[in-house]
Amino acid sequence: MHDDHSAGPAGRRDDEPDIDAEFAAMMEGLQLPSEPSDLPEATGPVSTDDVPHNVYGLPGSAASAGSVGSGDDAELTPEQLAEVEALAAALDADANAEDGGAKAVKIAVVLTPLASADALAALCAAGGLDCWVVPSRSGAIAVKEFVSAHAEWDIAELLGGTDTEPAEAAELAGALSRLSRLGVVLMTADLATDVGIESGLSGTITARRYQNGEAGEETSAGLLLASADQTIEDILLGVTRAERVPGAVRTSEVKPGRMMRWLGRGMRQRGGGRDQGDQSGN
Q1: Which of 15, 33, 61, 154 lies 20 to 30 angstroms, CA to CA, from 186?
Q2: How many domains are contained in the chain?
């Protein structure tokens, strides 16, 4: 059998590259000292100027354009300094937010049958109840916001193993439940954003009836929200702050003069109803 690839004089096959020739071609024209004594003697101390430096500059600066400066030439312009300070402030704000953690907030909303937010605010002020009163198509509501006791989410909150109704919210609901035979409903939202392994908004919303100052049984929060004004859901979920709703009233800011006029009007209406009932023999 004939072999087309015959070996050359140095024992190399004809199709194999000549490495020695290629290396000689690469080294051609390169001048190297024949003796180590021909090299310059480096016995002095090393200067920082001899060490390569970072030559990258900010976009648009002289260093980024290829001219590396030192001293005044390398200083930032006022515009660049302002950008750096703004970026540092933003990073500090993010760091502070991360250090503080995502604090859970409890929002209590008391649903009342009263149509007038001003009247409800006056009654709350008369009873020393500090809250925000917000008008809605479902009736005036009283709103209080609390900082939750837990900074990190507790599984007991999801399972209902802890008391989710703050004492002040229960007191507010109990006091307002005496205004009507129908009573009121206390809705409590215990929510937080990006807590633990949860991404986004997480937590629970509960609802409990109050009548004649006493707490009753729990009811479905979902059914109540489905038929209630959208403003109520937005407040519970933290989408809207109570004080930003048009017509919202802070009970601590109600003037005594206006409060007395509202209370007097309400008492006259009740008294007139009783007199009519007595005259009819009931």
Answers
A1: 154
A2: 1
